[in-house]
Structure formats: structure tokens, C-alpha cells
Predict the structure.
Amino acid sequence: MTALTGTRRGLAAGSSLFLATLLLALAACRPAGDAAIGKRVEVEWKERQLLFVGDARSGNARIFHMRAAPLLIGEMRAPDRGAVRDLRIDRERQRVWILGEAAVYVHDARTWSLIRRVAAPAAAAERLDLDADGAPLLLGGDGRRLARIEPARFAVETFRLAGGA
């Protein structure tokens, strides 16, 4: 202890060293680059005060109620979905369509349970959109239509490029 201040110099130095070591350890545990962050898809359903957040790393979509503050109220999972690439809400049919890495998944918007996995050319699709009839459209990175899923029978109609074989 020093006579004038009554403090211990060694304690301050030791605390600073511990804090610096802790920060370095935490930084080392965090993945680096854009892959660490991953793409997060958010879709808001204002009429029901819900926010759907899809995770590109886990394949789960979480549901938050947005009345006062975001409150986690549910989660949509599928056994073989490893990523959520895009998400759309069909308000008329009360469905949530999720574009995974290998298929499109449709969930009930009231119970959040999985209705069906639709095998579609999802690997080539970058976005999901709904047409005027509520049918999901799989879109490429350039915006061209790759496929359309008929919402009543879940039949997949693929589109070919002009001049393609």
C-alpha cells in the first residue's frame, strides 16, 4: 500500500491484465469475417404485431411479438433445414414460406408447425417472393424466375431460359 492514497498498485495492474486477457479470449472465440455474421432475414407482419427472423446459420425462424418490446414467442424448425435464405408471409392463407438451402418449407402461421417440405430448385434460388395468387416464386440472383409453387397442391413448375436445352 502507498502511504498517501491507501491503494495497492499491484491490484490495478492485475485487474487491467485480467480484463485485457478476457477481452482477447472473447475476441478469439468469435468467428471472423462475413461468414461469422451470416445473413438474417426479417419480415414484419404489422397486423398481428409479429416479427419473423430467419437465421442463415441454424435454419430456424424465430417469432417475436412487437407490442411494447420484442418478446420471443415461438420458433419454426424443420428437421433437415440448415439455413433460412428468405422468408415470406401469405397473409390470406395464413402461411409462412421459408426458402432453405435445398427446399422450400411451408409453415402454418397460427401454430408455426411445419405443413410440408417442397422439393424445389432452391439451391439455385437466392430469393423468395409471392405472386398475386399467393404462390411462392423462386428467384435467381438476377431476379429471373426459376420456379413457381402452386399453393394448393404444392406442385412445382420450373421455368427454363429461352434457348436452353
Notes: The CA atoms of residues 97 and 106 lie 5 Å apart. Residues 22-26, 28-36 have pLDDT under 50 and may be disordered. The radius of gyration is 24 Å. Residues 38-158 form a domain with the Methylamine Dehydrogenase; Chain H fold (CATH 2.130.10.10).
